[in-house]
Amino acid sequence: MSDLNSALIRKVHAGADDTCFISILTDWNSSKMNDIAQEVFDLACDGLSLEDIGKAVGISKKATLKLLNEYKQRYCSGYESTFYDRLFLPDELNEQFESLVKTEQPDAYFSINSFYKRKRKNENVRHINAFVLDFDFYKIQKYEEMEASEFYKEIIAEKLIKEPTAVIDSGRGLYVIYTFNHCSYHMDRLYHAIFKSFYRQFERYGMDPAATLTTQVIRIPGTINSKTNKTVQVLELNDTDYRLQDFTNQLTWTLDEVKNHRKNKVKKVKNMKPTKDFTKRKKHFALYFDDFKKLIRIRNKKNISEGYREQLLFLCRERACWMGYTIDESIKLAFELNQMFRVPLIKSEVENNCRPSANRLACSIDTMIDKLGITIDEQLQLQVLKRRHIKKSVYAKHKRKHPLSNLTEKQQALMERRAKVCELKNVKHLKNSEIADRLETDKSTITRDLRYIKANPAKFIRKLTDYINALEKHKNSDLFKRKTLYERQKQLLKWLKSGYTALDYLVREIGVAKK
User: Fold this and answer.
1) CATH number of this structure's domain 28-82
2) Phi and psi of 291, rounded to 5°?
3) Most confident segment among 52-61, 279-288, 289-298, 473-482
């Protein structure tokens, strides 16, 4: 293992002691043994004692026994290959890292934070050591041809507010690492708040929202990325000395503002209310389910088949349970979505890995967008999974009035339909069902239109007259030609005949004065 790689590992886990465990994640059973292990096994087969074997290869009796047991377990037991964590004390790390690098182990990872138990779980976090900004820039079309070093120097470097501790080419993407003096797990909320601010800043450059966990692992420098067959390498290593508090200037609120807010916050009194009937929410789940389907279709067209499947199915099941579906019903919904993936997950993964929490909590829409990494272009094609500002912009667009008629698109469509209904009903004497078929709408809509015209003839004539006059005034003007699409012009000119016919009937038959 090179000095640069070793220095990075030491920098990340500088504060680790005998109470800390660091995780290494890889497919241990398929990893290659080094030459010493093979030699130890051969000598043992020749009948040498552990002491003699140790002397022959230059290692201790304890190390000899460990290598021999590992070799037997790996190559003589015949059990299935697995991909799992092993947690080690700090003084055991170097040996493991050197072995994985020497044998060019594919897809090997280590945890940036440490744990006080031999299980890599959020509740077992001992020390928080670093931020790792994971850029999957290859997923963005304009950056997909760039190398990691090129992407860092040209795009990311100038946007960083502080000098990074390390920059790593992960073989496909890019890691930007900020280490700091390790802090207690009690600062987890501050850690994630700062991490969220990093994500808001770099979301557009492909930062992975799923790589912001306290239990996050990153590839070990010197090992192989099996997807590209490239070696993970350190591009830059700097001698930084940060504290977690040094990054708080990225947060939206200052410390004083937070203190004042807490001081003035009115505590809500919890009222004992009967248990909610969650099944009433079921009718709203269809919109979320349609969005999940739409997102899968969009990404299938882009040939994105991995990296979001488990997260999407988990969020689907979580939202379904929160809206009143049972666990079994949520599994059926997840199976339906799973079949739409280019590479579906196996049945056990859908049932176990994507299981939601039992307390009926559900992520917010913004959190779902972050976890799935839904781009702005994708959000524009969805119904519910949109940022608030995008929904507002779409709503504002619907409310925008046409400069010629001073009506919104919806108001124009309504006016034109009612005039057409009036013509077809009273001049051409068609039935309501025939009008509905011709206009491709519901019969109830036609009935409501006729009821409105009969109840408000004077108001309708005034509005219809104003609309016709506006079109007549501008139909030959340059503004009309510039502001209105060609097809829309033809529709409006064609509709003018229906408008005049309806207006003539209203004035003659209903007897309301034309204004």
Assistant:
1) 1.10.10
2) -65, -40
3) 289-298
Most confident listed range (179-183, 409-413, 475-479): 179-183
Dihedral over alpha carbons 74, 77, 81, 85 (to 10 degrees): -60
- Mean predicted confidence (pLDDT) in 122-128: 88
Radius of gyration of the chain (CA): 33
Q: How far is CA 466 from the centre of its chain?
A: 49
The CA–CA distances, whole Å, from 440 to 22, 421, 428 equal 65, 12, 17
- Domain ranges, ordered by start, for the chain: 3-23+84-248, 28-82, 278-392, 409-510
Residue 103 near residue 31, CB atoms below 8 Å: yes
Helices (H) and strands (E) in the chain, counts: 21, 11
Between CA 231 and CA 228 the distance in angstroms is 9
- What is the overall mean pLDDT for the chain? 83
Altogether, the residues listed in the chain come to a count of 515
What is the SS3 string spanning 384-418? CCCCHHHHHHHHHHHHCECCCCCCEHHHHHHHHHH
Other Cβ atoms closer than 10 A to 422: 22
The per-residue pLDDT for 269 is: 47
Q: In terms of DSSP bridges, do strands 109-111 and 217-219 run parallel, antiparallel, or are they unpaired?
A: antiparallel
Phi, psi of 266 (to 5 degrees): -85, 125
Q: How far apart are CA 344 and CA 306, in angstroms?
A: 9
CATH of the domain spanning 3-23+84-248: 3.30.70.1790
